[in-house]
Design goal:
Blueprint: E1 6-11, H1 17-28, E2 37-43, H2 48-60, E3 65-70, H3 76-86, E4 91-94, E5 100-101, H4 105-115, E6 121-129, E7 138-140, H5 146-149, E8 165-167, H6 168-173, H7 185-195, E9 200-211, H8 216-221, H9 224-240, H10 246-260, H11 264-274
Parallel strand pairs: 1-2, 1-4, 2-3, 6-9
Antiparallel strand pairs: 4-8, 5-9, 6-7, 6-8
Helix pairs in contact: 1-2, 9-10
Length: 277
């Protein structure tokens, strides 16, 4: 098996140029295994500063970037759906526009997929940070083996999404990223993959620095009535696809929905105290 692979990224107007620059540097200049292609989806107008960052990396890496551009913002699910279709290689790695991959991330994940042809998706643990890597000393750790990853899949996503490398064919057979399940495009896809018999693995190393800021803004985006409505749409979608039973849906709502209505500061305290190491 060759080591050709694509990296799939989406960027939109709210990204900070320095964050994008750090992210692109970590996957073009700092990797022990360099990508064969970076499929970058520009999700609507992004402004001159971000365009200049992208132009700089295109000029420094001739032939590496494949640019897909939307005239208006379509949302992450739509961007990933179209971007994945455009990826040239069977192996694809995800990356967010404000995170930082450790230098050996792609090398370790690619070697794992080569040595384990039965695995369709491989992720890793990650370290969260605010302004610079290492400043929070906080880690998000998922189980290693497939059986442990899917043991609680009806209540939580099995992967840290920005860390994954996967086989494109498996994703396409499962229906690709959903275009209209905002905030649940990755989780819904992992559930469809699981139902189709895909095999998962999570490398027990931190291979990505994940930017969370102080954390409060993320919590605000994932709480309140606006989030509950999106989550309910997600659950109804799973019922329509026969992925969740009525009991699955009810259990999810009983456990998750009360948390969405708590004050964000309390949710952040729970998040930092009990869900991270």
């Amino acid at each position: 098996m060759t080591k050709l692979f694509s990296v799939l990224i989406s960027v939109y107007f709210s990204e900070k140029p320095k964050n994008l620059e750090d992210s692109l540097f970590s996957i073009t200049k700092a990797q022990t295994l360099r990508p064969s292609e970076i499929t970058l989806v520009i999700d609507g107008p992004i402004g001159l500063d971000l365009e200049q960052v992208i132009d700089k990396f295109i000029d420094q890496n001739i032939g590496l970037f494949k640019i897909i551009r939307f005239k208006e913002n379509k949302g992450l699910g739509y961007a990933l759906h179209e971007g994945l279709k455009a990826c040239s290689h069977e192996i694809v790695a995800r990356m967010d526009s404000d995170d930082i991959s450790l230098p050996d991330r792609f090398d370790k994940q690619m070697n794992f997929l080569i040595n384990h042809p039965e695995i369709d998706v491989v992720g890793s643990n990650l370290e969260e940070f605010n302004k610079h890597p290492g400043d929070l000393k906080r880690f998000k750790i998922n189980p290693e083996k497939h059986e442990d990853l899917v043991a609680k899949i009806r209540l939580k996503s099995p992967f840290n999404h920005p860390t994954i490398m996967f086989r494109k064919n498996a994703f396409m057979e499962a229906g690709n990223y959903s275009k209209d399940l905002m905030l649940f495009e990755d989780y819904s896809l992992f559930l469809r993959l699981w139902k189709r018999g895909a095999r998962f693995h999570n490398i027990q190393e931190n291979l990505l620095y994940f930017r969370v800021g102080t954390g409060i803004e993320t919590i605000k985006r994932r709480s309140g009535k606006h989030y509950l409505l999106k989550e309910l749409k997600f659950l109804n979608y799973l019922r329509s696809k026969h992925i969740f039973s009525f009991t699955d849906k009810l259990l999810y709502m009983l456990i998750k929905f009360p948390i969405r209505l708590l004050p964000p500061k309390i949710v952040l305290f729970i998040y930092n105290s009990f869900l991270r190491k």
